[in-house]
Description:
Elements lengths: L20 E9 L9 E4 L5 E3 L5 E6 L3 E8 L6 E7 L4 E2 L2 E3 L7 H6 L10 E3 L2 H6 L7 H5 L5 E3 L6 E3 L7 E5 L2 E3 L3 E2 L9 E2 L6 E7 L13 E7 L7 E7 L2 E9 L5 E10 L2 H7 L5 E17 L5 E18 L4 E19 L6 E17 L2 E21 L2 E21 L11 E24 L2 E12 L4 E13 L4 E12 L3 H7 L7 E14 L3 E19 L4 E21 L3 E15 L7 E2 L6 E10 L4 E10 L3 E2 L2 E7 L4 E6 L5 E2 L3 E14 L2 E10 L7 E6 L6 E5 L5 E9 L1
Amino acid sequence: MKFLAILFLFFITASASFAQIKISGKITDKDALPVVGANVVIKGTIDGATADEKGYYEFETSKNGSFILICTSIGFKEFSKNINISTDNIVINVVMETEGYKTDEIIVTASSFTSGENSKVTLTPLEIVRIPGADADLFRAITTFPGSNQVDEGSRIAVRGGDPNEVLTFLDNASLYNPFIFQDAYNTQSFSTINPWGLRGINFSSGGFSARFGNVLSAVLDLQSYDLPSSNGIFAFIGLANASLQGAYVSPDTKFGATFATYQTYIKPFLDLNGITEDYSKSPTATGFGGTLVYKTSETGILKLYANYDHSKVGIRNSSPSYNGYVNSEANSFFTNLKYSVAPTSVSLLNVSASFSNYNSISKYGVLDNSVGNLYSKIRADFSTPLNEALDFSTGTEFEYNKYESNGKVPLLFYNLRPDAPFFELNSSKNSGRFGLYSELKSKISKHFAIVGGLRSDYYSISKKVILDPRLSLVFRLSEHSYIKGSAGIYHQNPALEYFLESGKTDLLPEQSNHYILGYEYNRDGDYIFRVEGYYKDYKNLLLFDRFFQNFSSSGYGFAKGVDLFLKVRLKPKFNGWISYAIADSRRKQFYATDVSSANYDITHTLSIVGEYNITERLTIGATYKFSTGKPFTPVTGSIFEQSQDVYIPFFAEVNSGRMPDYRRFDMNMQYIFNFLGKFAVAVIAVNNILNVNNVFEYTYTPDYSKKIGISYNSPRIVYVGLGLQF
Length: 727
């Protein structure tokens, strides 16, 4: 897909790390504990960094002269220091003073003992934009870690054998169900709408996650965006296929702040340069804009409005057995969240939020002419406080409303898609509500042992079902840098509303997954990380088509088991890289399967190798190699001619009894920092799929189904270039 880097403009906010003078140090509180996630910046610039899990920060700058270094973190007083940048590297250690209260972020992430998330991988925005092939996309970056796989060449991910809809994106305590552009478009890569440089916290959990999260079976991507911007500025990026602009403003008294970001694609130059000749009726185009408004209501109170809108459309030729024509699709997505955070007491934190999202898509192909709408709204409140030095308590509640509607023409016969084929009209909708609440205790029993216990309950209005989900996590510290971690818990997720519509039933049960996880981790200051983790997931109440009653029931079941391995090495300041490997076995009796068979995303082997190297202070290169076993598919075994329809009817083998070819891809990129007309600038070049591997993601057939034809994403070897400029 040509829409290679709509978020590449965000690279310029990180690229100062290649400049000439290094500024580094450690950020701690008065008790010498690291202040994780503290933001460090040179006032009036975009040069800065975020403190890691040990409180260390490091960045490089091309600035010269007298400046003010600012360090901020919620719950602490702002730290500022006059510095003189000349020709020598600078080491500045910061001791921050509290504002009289602690936030949930500090309580949760100050120690790995208290995280309670045994499969957590934390990414930094800088790593996201540097990973070759990730195209500055958060979700694509995550697929370089064990346990997660790309569904196709796009950004949607599947985790440990689960479906993509079993992964929840959580942004500022709001559920973000449609965070992609082109997510429903045929043979067109999807891209994330999330700006990684607007995030102060990026935590991905592939299992065993907290009781805070409900209505999700497999994995959680928990994101926290920045509140007040740290400086003013405008950043522009122009590339071979897109142009982008973003900006930030903070008032002199730092009580009000605002950000904006917008982009537009234009892919014809990209297609021409790379020799891509796909037949389009509408070239893939996308437009988006969004931003934040933040107001500091008091010393401890912050009110933040987040909003984002995206529009996309594409028309691409597809040849199916019964019809050769254009698949035309168009989508609109809007998301907004209003959040208020305040410290009711000196040690507690209250977050209250209200969110709304609306996603609409239109699909046309032959007789198909259908529009689908998804509407979600949610109100949520979370409260946390320490009960004593060793015990933290958190609780919360939420109510979520969602509505699904489908309108238009749908083929009556799946094997006949021609414009004159029989069809039936759809004009239907379904809505439901979910009320949830949770409580969680985090206990640091000793300096070597901690336990996190949680209980969650959800009520689903459509089926009138109440569920209880107990969850438990344990961490035992073997040495200064090594840990044993384990967890067990029950997780539920309601079937999508379209299945309630299709089956005509309201008694479908929430699908259930029981997680059992055990792992070992060695982590030496983030420079050397080794993690091995085994898991087993037991599925119940999965959707299964009842061939006798011709509707869906909750009688499906299955399992997933596997081992994840992860090794990361960081050799400052030159090299950063990691290797991840996962072996998995995921089997289900679900949907139209007649027996337990490979799940739709049963990927047996997955390997990712990522490396980046600073050749000079201004020039960096990176490379990524990815391999995975082919996904299962259901082969056609034969056909019979239907004279009345003038088409062939296919006969299928057992569900998912076939395998796609293995997936391979090798990507490289390079970034160069320089001055342009006295302004900071960055040049980017990326080459994806260097080996020009033709990765098949789907099969179609000749009209009589006698020959199978592989369909590949429009992703041959491609070259992308772009330029970013700071104003």
